[in-house]
Amino acid sequence: MDPSLFIAPLAVTVVFAVIASYAVAMFVIPTFCARFLKVRPASSTPEAALGSTMPAWFSGWFSRLLSMRWFVAAGSGGLLALAVFLLSRTGTELFPQVDSNQFTIYVRLPSGTRIERTEDTIKEIEKVLLAEMGQPDAQYPKVEKYADSNLRILISNIGVLMDWPAAYTPNTGPMDAFVLVQLKGKSGMPSTFDYVETLREKLNRKFPGVDFAFDTGGMMTAALNSGLPSPINIRIEGFNFFTAEEIAMHVKRIASSVPGTTDVRIAQRVDYPQIDIQVDRVKAAQLGLTQEDVVKNVVTTINSSINFDPVFWIDPKNGNHYFFGAQYAEDDIQSLETLKNIPITGKKSVMPVALRNIAKFGRKTGPAVVHHVNIKRTTDVFANVKRGYDVGSVASELERRLAASPVLKPVRKLTPRGVVYDVGGDYGGKGYRYSMSGEVQTMRSSFMQFGQGLLIAIILVYLTMVAQLRSFGVPFVILLTIPLGFIGVGITLWTTRTNLNIPAFMGIIMMTGIVVEYSIILLDFANKRVEDGLSVRDAIKEAAWIRLRPILMTSLTTWLALIPMAIGFAGGEANAPLARTIIGGVLAATVLTMVVVPCLYVMFKRENPQRVAAVSTGAHQ
Fold this sequence. Notes:
Elements lengths: L3 H33 L9 H7 L3 H12 L1 H20 L13 E7 L6 H19 L17 E8 L17 E8 L8 H15 L4 E5 L2 H7 L7 E6 L3 H17 L3 E6 L5 E8 L1 H6 L4 H12 L8 E4 L6 E4 L11 H5 L2 E2 L8 E2 L4 E8 L4 E3 L2 E10 L5 H13 L7 E5 L2 E5 L10 E5 L1 H31 L3 H7 L1 H15 L6 H30 L4 H11 L1 H19 L9 H29 L4 H12 L1
Antiparallel strand pairs: 1-3, 1-4, 2-3, 5-14, 5-17, 6-14, 7-12, 8-9, 10-11, 13-14, 15-16, 16-17
């Protein structure tokens, strides 16, 4: 799913909120001021009055600051370099991990395990879950029967019906099952991630030979991850199942060695027991049978005729449609001998013929499921990320180790669909390739789109200010506030151990618009004072003192309003990176705007000697 579907509503909300606030500020606030504020007699303009009351300590400190403007500019550049370094060391992920009070356990027994055996194993697994979390309490929170339990619902889904329902389950055969767990989320109880870490260790120890994988993503992550069960997905393309399985085994071994990976497994197996039926076509033709007749009779025996000859009946009362088809009773097919004796009929056959009379039987192994992407056969290697690690760093390390593999010897290629790696070595020239898919691919494409959006936003802001201020230099100085905000973003994300993700990038773009306002408030007043005839130094000094209060008030109201969200109280854990990013950028921009921007203004703004001289002459007269 495209992440922009989640971002667009926020952007639209912010745009309309800004438009509404502008209308209120231009029409409502002046009315209230005229009605409630009292006029105080003054001998000069408010700006002059405020400027004349500038404390001596502020004037002296600011003068020394401007005299060291080159050192200040160099120091801010050093801080920006530090912030960039910290951001490069910050982890990346598509969306922050959120405790959704639910998780899924994917269970896979050896290929070919009968469904009765799988059911017995699931019963034992459920006992472990109940011992760890307590008895299910489905009516919670309306009615709580088990106060010491943190388990609300426990549902197990075993096997797969080889029919239409197979499209709606992750199970690929009777050896597969998945267990849905929903917690109460009571305070004082372990979190979802704590339960998963405990259960992963217990289940793998108690059930050797059974593969377990845990999914704690929740609905949001599942939607952004296109429904995949794990954030890391190495997709291998190739025609031959068994060769692709060999490559997948190499990838799995490498992925298992990467720090931070867990639940590494291959989704498609090729060791599923199969019955190989070799039809004697000559003998079948002599009896009036074709290959199609044999296949349809066998499919009807082990499944139903709905797969090749679907018939629908629509209930006139409710409009629901139902399938009609022929099939054998499940108890009628008990063994291979039973299958050999099924009668085969066809349109041209005279009488039924036992299958054993026209076919030979053998046993072999093959794929339990065949997965295609864009018509190509694919084999998927999935891996989860341990708690305390980020998806981006783990995926990058995995790609680095795969690139260095002496067996795979991959060659990187850039295609319209993204980056792919052609497998070399003994597999070279045979059409096998692999790519990083799933959440990692979505994350990287989303970050690139956010970067482009940020660049466009900066260009639009600059062009707007050029038209308003009728200058190219002053808008450039104003834009330098954005890197100053990045200093706070880098330090905040690093100190709070917050990863770069979609909410964090949304916060960066919003921070860009917020921090630019500080420089506009400061430099717009300074420009007016320069036009009045003050020197650049005196104008920016007066502007810094007079505009100090509105800048501090704007900054204070912004980050105070975001503190509840930053600690995960308002909006949950998902929006915390957004709030932390804005707070860090606003705090840094507030301080550095009053320190760095005046120095840059003096460096870039040209004096007007004639206007300054004229004002000075008028003052002496």
